Amino acid sequence: MMLNILPQVLVDGLTLGFMYAVVALGYTMVYGILEFINFAHGEIFMVGAFVGTEVLLISDSLGALEGMNPFVALFLTLIIAMVLTGALGVGIERVAYRPLRGAPRLVPLISAIGVSFLLQDLVRFTEALARNEFYLNSPTLFTGSISLGSIATIPTKGLIVIVLAIVMMISLTLFINKTKWGIAMRAVAQDQSTASLMTINVDKVIMLTFLIGSSLGGATGVLFAQNYGTIDPYIGFILGLKAFTAAVLGGIGNLRGAMVGGVLLGLLESLSGAFMGPLTNGAFGAEYKDVFAFSILILVLLFKPEGLFGEAVKEKV
Amino acid sequence: MKKLSHISILSAVLATSVALTGCAGTSNSSGGSNTGGGGQPAQNQPSTSGSGGGAATDGGVIKIATQTPLSGNQSSLGDAIKTGAEYALNQRKEEFKKLGFDIQLFPQDDQADPKIGVSNAEMLISNPDVYGVVGHLNSGVAIPSSVKYEEGKLVMVSPANTAVKLTEEGKKTVHRICARDDAQGPKAAMYAKNTLGVKTAFIIHDKTAYGQGLSDQVKLQFEKDGVQLLGYEGITQGEKDYSAVLNQVSAKNPDIIFFGGLYPEGGILVKQAREKGYKGYFMGGDGLDSSDMIKIAGDAVEGVVFTSVAGDVTQTEEGKKWAEEYKKTTNKPLETYSVYGFDSMNVILNGVMEAIKANGGKKPTREQVLEAVHKTKDFQGQFTKVTFDEKGDNTNADVFIYKYDKDKSTFVGKAE
Amino acid sequence: MANLTWKTFKGIPLALTLVWIAGFAAALHFMDKSVIAFLGILSSIVLIYYTNTSKAIKMVIGAAVLLIVIPLVAGENRYYMEVASQVGIYVAMALGLNIVVGFAGLLDLGYVAFFAAGAYAYAIFSTSQANEFIAGNLFPLSGEWFWPFLIVGLIVAAVFGVLLGLPVLRVKGDYLAIVTLGFGEIIRIIFNNLDKPINITNGPQGITPIPSPELFGIKMGTPFFFYFIVLFVIAFIVLANIRFEHSRLGRAWIAVREDELAAQSMGISLLNTKLAAFATGASFAGVVGVIFAAKQTFIDPTSFTLMESIGILVMVILGGSGSIPGVVLGAAFVTILQVQLLKEFSNFLHSLQQSGIINLPNQLDPSKFQRLIFGIMLILAALYRPNGLIPAKRKKNDLDAIKASDYGKEKLGILGKLSQLASGKQS
Fold first, then answer.
1. Do residues B192 and B286 both lie within one domain?
2. Least CB-packed of B118, B242, C229, C310 within 10 Å?
3. Are B137 and B157 contained in the same domain?
4. Which of B1, B15, B44 sits opposite C357 (nearest CB)?
5. Does B346 lie in the same domain as B302?
6. Domain count, chain B
7. Nearest to A120 by CA among C371, B339, C382
8. Are residues B304 and B185 in the same domain?
9. What 3-state class would DSSP assign to C105?
């Protein structure tokens, strides 16, 4: 009886999973180059969600959304959010991370946690001042849904999330693999000092990494707000955690791994949330879905310690 | 850093200079300078009307604390309590000034963290000016903190803690004006069975002391009444995607979803449930009672039923005026938690007033205030009627049913 | 530049330290409510650390301040003692995590799980909760059981550490971070859900009332007593830390931290060494968990979130990973900041607002600023003290010591002896 909801569960899992995947890209890019967990990346995602929602709310109150093609509106919102969050990411790197490049490995983590608290409260105060509350509800641009008979219904917004996430991932892959800057990024990821000897400006490449990673995160924030409607300044922490988990699951530092890891994690959560309770007859309910997801992660890492797609680094003496 | 210390030094200098000149009228001048968007805090209101009586507060300072989360993701609820309490206190500043007392709010941020709550509690009981506490939001913070209040004989009136255990441990200082889970839960379940006529139910809770406590009581009653339980699931607070659990719901298609939890999750749940084509009832406890519920759930809010111990204030003319006034002064929408905070504060202030009178106009002891608060009988607050029993529970355990229309909640009636 | 002045800095004259202590003690004695005086007393410990005198004198003065001066002048004020005992609890935990992160270099983001294990061990068996799953109505236990449970907590957490460590420690570096994070979350979620099918932890409703410690019929429920209990445990942990740091195992940890491969080829068993670090760190957290449960009298899973693990990690790194005085300072700094300084600051701002001197809209109420300021402090601390408040000292004289020892005189060199030492003195 439960199996008839399986397609629907898969669709929901994919929507969530693709969002994890794009945010995971940001973690994995920064990690690949700096070997540092950018804890504040989840917060950049959150800022993106707020910027996007504010843009929509303001243009809605100005009447600009009337009669505008929703795709155009979404596109413009995405652009604005990406530019702003990209700039924010670069700014954070400049102020809080770059001075710490020679420092012990874990110190940037402290700075990142600080940035994370700071951003949460800054957004909270700004929103509280401007709108008297910090829960924002995004105007929905897409309301329809595509029905696949009785099997599943895919809301248009969910479909847009998936499509845009795939577009972002493909363009990033192309960028990394085909352009000069992409090659420079890979070079810096492999060996910073050698890359700098090859006349690559390492600082600029790192800036670019933060720019791209952050703007992708910001764009996902917009999509998140569109898909779930309600946002608060604390969404970044939970989602960031999951996305980071996804990045590790796929093999941190590996772009393909982050994408697969994200989608996989979304699916796992959705499946366990929907089926765990009925299958165990209520003994282990949906509240165990995170336990399930983390257990899979641990299992994968035990048998393949470098993640699904990570390359095993051979240590040389 | 440097700037910060400059500011604090500057403000310290300002503080001393004002204290030296002994003038309390500063708030008048700054009251007007506030820009439109920010909203005027309530505390300036009373002092504006009575700036003449600046020197009358020779009886001393009486501080009433609030302890609620003011930062972190539960801060909107905690802030609602604080704002309500603050509003109540400011309304009665004059009254106390006439007796020679300066009453002040002493808001604390417990960060929804038991440790912080306890250390704040220690601070409150070692500050002799503090005479009462309005708090907490979370039972998990209230229970350990109340141990400390008990040791310091500091009266606590809780606006929001519904956990049964809180008042069951025989602490004299603990009081609450809200309903216990075992009062609200069964009545909600009976209403669903008898009035809504549901035969199958799916219970979702947020895995917190409040949400699960309430849901457990509902579940018990459903089992007693023969309502078939199709599922009992927990969700994670703070997430925004509940499709996993809701897919289970849509597979089983129950007559009612009962949600034990608060409106940020409740709003999303009902919205996502309707998007998935769920057609049955959606019901919850007083945690769903908020203007934000409507904003979060959007159109889906229509038809959501919830229980509350708060009688309807907006039915009467007077009540409507009160609500208007509240919104105007605090620049915040009226929340149930604000009203609970408001009523809790008034219960304490009444106690303080009684104690002052009993003490011949002198500053009372905490025990006297505690006694007076404990004796509260038939106090008609703005929403709730308060009579404390031996344990500190509010005996006035009427539970009311509300239902959301498109843009507001309407009073349905008393739950029998 | 700063380094230069640091190097020429010989230490604070003893007289100044003593004057400082006496001054602030007197101030606190006469002005009971002065937070500055209280912080002055607490900071005198740091001063003592930098005082230019012999180690023995420093120890004596430090012990005198902690055991006599503070209880004497601040013991009356419950709030100060509460702050002091919370500081102590975090100092002890940070010292435990320091073994894992600082010495062995294992990034552990699930440390709070061991803390929870200790706390729940005491909570479950000291209340009637244990009757839910153990027949015979043997519980609750009295407060006198607190003392044996310090050991029980230690063992339970150590066993937890080994059990978790066995699978987890196969992964390295940041993978380890996420795996420990995952385990920490799993344990919290399980504690939050173990009210069914068998009620072990009572789920989100938490466990209460946990009895306060009792000794010879005296109930030790006030912060005053906990201050001494915590101090005692810290003394034990610091001692253990120092002993470990210079022991064979401690040197093995540092070797593993610096270079796993090199350590391995020197005959150090990676898994055993790491497991030992994990279990040692965990056991300290377990002991502290028991104290925490007894102090709070109520525990529920909200006390054991990921943020807690991160907070303790922040203390270790901020203070100076691997440096015992640094970690103590870092933990004290962060805890005081969170439970007292920010609080007092916002109360101060609030009183200004009440008297109408500053005027902030309700949305910017000073009591809401605490996390924001904490965030800024973290960034500044990372930027300006990247090696920690008191960085770990590398032992410069290791080589000299070996040369001066008997081994230095051997004609065959020291290698033969060292290997002999390794195989012979295993126990």
1. yes
2. C310
3. yes
4. B15
5. no
6. 2
7. C371
8. yes
9. coil
Measured over the CA atoms of residue B392, residue B396, residue B398 and residue B404, the dihedral's sign is negative
CB count within 10 Å of CB A70 equals 16
> Hunting for tokens 């939890």 — which residue is that?
B261
Instruction: Give backbone dihedrals phi and psi of B252, rounded to 5 degrees, phi first.
Output: -100, -20
B260 and B373, same domain (yes or no): no
Q: pLDDT (tens digit, 9 = 90+) per residue, C194-252?
A: 887 788 888 888 888 888 888 887 888 888 889 999 999 999 999 998 888 888 898 89
**DSSP type of residue C222:** S
- HSE-CB of B160 using CA atoms within 13 angstroms: 38
Tell me, yes or no, whether B226 lies in a domain.
Answer: yes
Q: Residue A118 and residue C376: Cβ atoms within 8 Å?
A: yes
* Partner C, chain B 344-403, Cβ-Cβ below 8 Å: none
Please say whether the beta carbons of C302 and B163 come within 8 A: no
Residues in chain C within 8 Å Cβ distance of A290: 185-186, 189
pLDDT tens for each residue of chain A, 317 residues long: 567 788 888 988 999 999 999 999 988 888 888 888 888 999 999 999 999 999 999 988 888 777 788 889 999 999 999 999 999 999 999 999 999 888 887 788 889 989 999 999 999 889 888 887 788 888 888 888 887 777 777 888 888 999 999 999 999 999 999 999 999 998 998 888 899 898 899 999 999 999 999 999 999 999 999 998 889 898 998 898 889 889 888 888 888 899 999 999 999 999 988 888 778 777 777 888 888 888 888 888 888 878 888 776 555 44
Q: What CATH number has the domain bearing residue B294? A: 3.40.50.2300
Q: Is residue B40 part of a domain?
A: no
Which structural domains are found in chain A, ordered by start?
8-303 (1.10.3470)
Residues with Cβ within 8 Å of residue C212, at least 6 apart in sequence: C143, C146, C219, C220, C221, C225, C294, C297
Query: Which residues 66-105 in chain A show a CB within 8 A of chain C?
Result: 96, 99-100, 102-104
* Position B130 in a domain: yes
The residue segments making up the domain with residue B131 are 57-179+319-386
Out of A106, A116, A297, the one facing C321 most closely (by C-beta) is A106
Radius of gyration, alpha carbons of chain C: 23
**Locus of tokens 């955690």:** A241
Provide the 3-class DSSP secondary structure of residue B240.
coil
- H-helix or E-strand spanning residue C83: helix C78-97
Q: Is residue B98 part of a domain?
A: yes
Q: What is the pTM of this model?
A: 0.85
Cβ <8 Å between B147 and C297: yes
